TrEMBL record:
Residues 454-471 have a biased composition (Polar residues). The keyword ATP-binding does not apply. Residues 1-28 form the signal peptide. ANK repeats lie at residues 374-406, 415-447. Pfam families: Ank (PF00023), Ank_2 (PF12796). Residues 446-471 are annotated as: Disordered. Keywords: ANK repeat, Repeat, Signal. This is Uncharacterized protein. The keyword Signal applies. SUPFAM superfamilies: Ankyrin repeat. It comes from the Bacteria. It comes from Terasakiella brassicae.
Amino acid sequence: MRLSFQCRMGTLLFLCLLLTCTTTGAVAAQRPQAEKFQEQLQRALDLGSQSPPTPQIISEIRLIFIDLERQVRDKGRNQGFFEFFKEVVEQPTPYDGTIDSLVKWLRFLSVAGDGRIDLMTEELVIPCERVLKHPNLKNVSEPVFGSSMDLYFPNTDCAKFRKQIPQSLIRYAQFIDQFSGDYGRDGTIRFAHARSNALTWDRIALFPNELSPTPQAKDCRYPLEKWALMSPWNWQKFQKSKTLFQQAERDMTRYYQAHHHMMQGKAKQAARKALWAQAFEGQWDEITCLNNSLRHALLTRQPAAQIIQKITDGTYQLDEWEKGLPTFNPQHPNTSIWFYSKKQDPLLHFAVFHTDMLAYVLEQNIVSQQTNEIGKTALMTAAQFDKKEALRLLLEKGANPNVTTRHTTEDLRFNARTALMYAAENASQETVDLLVQYGANAGAKDSEGRTVQDYAQRNSQPIDLSTHQAR
């Protein structure tokens, strides 16, 4: 017997309602369990953050943790999870009444109860007022997995106390961040990076005594010192970072005097720690500082006679650019500042800033077409930084003005750039004219089809290319 349309629709509606009720009932049954789990965890936090917990409270908290772990196992967490957690983090031992023990259990149960078993309905947030009373509580959010699992750890609301941090430190941190190589910004590791960065800010704002000691002043005055010697462009950015560092150091010194009641000397030390912590997230075991190198001597325009004497006696090596700096691991957070620039620019690029020494170096039969990793020549560097005398010296030595940068695996916006493009964007009319005089092609285009005129439009001063006949 065939059912009528109305009957079939009625049957379908009944089945849908039955399925909906069944699903809703299952969810409703699950929700009270999850709410109870979270309430018990919150109670353990409330009791454990009393100072100090009594033996009765310790016993109650132990029972809570035993029950919560049982619930996790009953919900399907297999032994593999517990072995994994023990290996990566640390399986907590029986609660002993200390804050550190409380932190371990809060971390363990928050991760164990989250994810697929859904016993954690929302993030466990610890009020910062309690963190100020028990500083080790902030360690609940310390990332270890390098993935989205780090978000399962509890958190604090200490961010509300960062509003008093001077803006100069924030500006410095944002400036430095440009050169991080985007470490920690891609993939699931970004979650761990965000947690780690938040903890660094909390230590700066509230717990400066926990920041790592800075390098000795005799070794390292500013962050990025060795990075600064990778290229003239790096050196230019380093000068800007120093200015920002000095302003932030003054402001942070006053901040610690006012908010942490430190004497000026101690406040200044804390300020330096804060600045270094922002530059490298408090890690610099592989970072070294400005050394007694030929590149540094050229960039700081030390007397030519003095530099030549050191070349003669072997202190400086003209071929030192071949040796370069130590190889840095771009995956290591301590060295992420070198992520996109693993080798120094050739020595000739630095000599552009010291005309007397450029002439001397060229006399030593060092070819004028030495390029860096992206194919950039010393002539391009001279054009970019408007070094007219150096530009003329290189052109007279036969430097080709129409050589282009090359495509690399780096995330560069423009390739196939010429010295004239660098000059049009950054230098003076005189430098542009000089390059064209020596045969630079005013009609060249980069890999994106941008012309020399397109680059000239970015220059802060007017550049007239109308008199130059494009070849």
